[in-house]
Each structure stands twice: as structure tokens, then as C-alpha cells.
Design a protein that fits this description.
115 residues, 25% strand, alpha+beta, 3 helices
């Protein structure tokens, strides 16, 4: 499950969708019980539930929760200022002039995934 809370108009955000697609190769347990109101369990992105919270003043928050019988693992990221994105923007701008095509995210630039 992913819980994200940036101050954005789209829901879920592109970041949350990309995170869900990245972890979708793992096992996403089916939700148990009945969903009484449509969407109460969040959007389903490749088997991963994504919950989007939209409140004024939130810059970026993403929490990924993995769970199994009797245990959970939570990974959380919070950006408290838009300035925290500037190092990545600077890397992308410098590298963009050397690229012949569009790319999404810093992973290709940093060599973390194939182009």
C-alpha cells in the first residue's frame, strides 16, 4: 500500500504511480472483506493500493507499507521544502542536453534502470 500526500491536483501523482509499478512485481495481497464505498481502499495500480491525500501546505510525503502475517515494513519519505528537489533537477538539466529522447525520472541518468 502507498500513502502519498503532496499538494497536487492529480491523484494519484505520477510519483505514486511509478512507485506502485516498480513494486508491482512483488506479491500484492488481495484486500479482505467488503469495500462499502467505492474507492475507500484507494486506487488499484497493478495490484498495489494507492491512497492520495490532498491538503494545502503539504510538499511531498510518500509512505510505502509492506505487510504479511503479524508484521509490516514501512518506508517513508518526506520533503519539507521544494528546495530538496533542486539537486535532482540540476542533474537532469545538465544531462538532458546529451539525451536524444524523453526520459521519465532520474533512474536512467543515475544508471539505476535500463533506458
Amino acid at each position: 500500500m502507498i500513502i502519498e500526500a503532496p499538494q497536487k491536483k492529480d491523484a494519484p501523482s505520477g510519483t505514486a504511480i511509478k512507485t506502485a509499478l516498480s513494486i508491482a512485481g512483488g506479491k500484492a495481497a488481495p484486500a479482505q472483506g467488503e469495500e462499502l464505498y467505492s474507492g475507500a481502499r484507494g486506487a488499484l495500480v497493478n495490484g498495489v493500493r494507492v491512497h492520495s491525500v490532498r491538503l494545502p501546505g503539504l510538499v511531498a510525503h510518500q509512505e510505502v507499507i509492506f505487510g504479511d502475517e503479524g508484521q509490516t515494513l514501512t518506508i517513508r519519505h518526506d520533503s519539507l521544502s521544494r528546495a530538496s528537489f533542486m539537486p535532482g533537477v540540476a542533474v537532469a538539466v545538465k544531462e538532458a542536453v546529451n539525451r536524444k529522447r524523453f526520459f521519465f525520472g532520474l533512474e536512467p541518468i543515475l544508471g539505476l534502470e535500463g533506458e
